[in-house]
Amino acid sequence: LALVNVIGGWAAGPTIDETDLAMLRQQIEINLITATLLTKHAVRRMKPAGLGRIVHVSSRAAHDPGANAFA
User: Fold this and answer.
1) CB 49 within 8 Å of CB 1
2) CA distance 67 to 15
3) In the predicted model, what is the mean pLDDT of residues 60-70?
4) What is the pTM of this model?
């Protein structure tokens, strides 16, 4: 059993010091919460099987950061 998580997103917008709480929460929901929930449900299937692999692929913004982008 395996989980490969390539779901995620990024937003180009204001600089971090100008980012409002709503935008920050949106990014956390898209990236962190999604990865956590996928992992939680994958582990529920992997534990009884006694094996499994989980891979989370980093955001595109980590490799190609645009101006004012964060993920």
Assistant:
1) yes
2) 8
3) 60
4) 0.72
